[in-house]
Design brief:
The protein has strands at residues 4-10, 14-21, 28-33, 40-49, 54-60, 67-68, 74-75, 79-82, 92-98, 104-112. The chain is mainly beta and 113 residues long. The relative contact order is 0.36.
Length: 113
């Protein structure tokens, strides 16, 4: 199985993307585009079993070539991390899960405009 989007909602001032990784998702990623540059964005993992893996956020301006954010953001266990203001100008973002064995993790990305 792979990352699945459980929801992608937005209103006038915010956008929320919830992605869930399930068993056998080792080295998978989920790409999403935001409608504009946010003023704040956070990454929250809950009910997580990362299977010894790491979920990292990457950015892209073309939706094809992704790279780690200049201020690296990653999670290896339940928690919440803010993405640095300087890293909020990309058009596309990716949640990249690597090094995992049979993970079960739900990751919520919340962007405020």
């Amino acid at each position: 199985m792979a990352f699945a989007t459980t929801s992608h909602t937005h209103d006038l001032h915010s956008e929320t993307v919830v992605v869930t990784a399930t068993a056998n998702t080792d080295n998978d990623s989920y790409d999403f585009q935001l409608r504009s540059s946010p003023i704040a964005m956070s990454l929250h993992a809950q009910g997580a079993d990362f299977g010894s893996g790491t979920a990292a956020v990457q950015g892209s301006n073309d939706g094809t070539n992704f790279a780690a954010l200049p201020t690296a953001v990653s999670l290896t266990a339940n928690g919440i991390k803010s993405i640095a203001l300087a890293d909020l100008g990309y058009s596309w973002y990716r949640i990249d899960l690597s090094g995992a064995t049979n993970p079960t993790v739900s990751i919520t990305v919340h962007a405020r405009f």
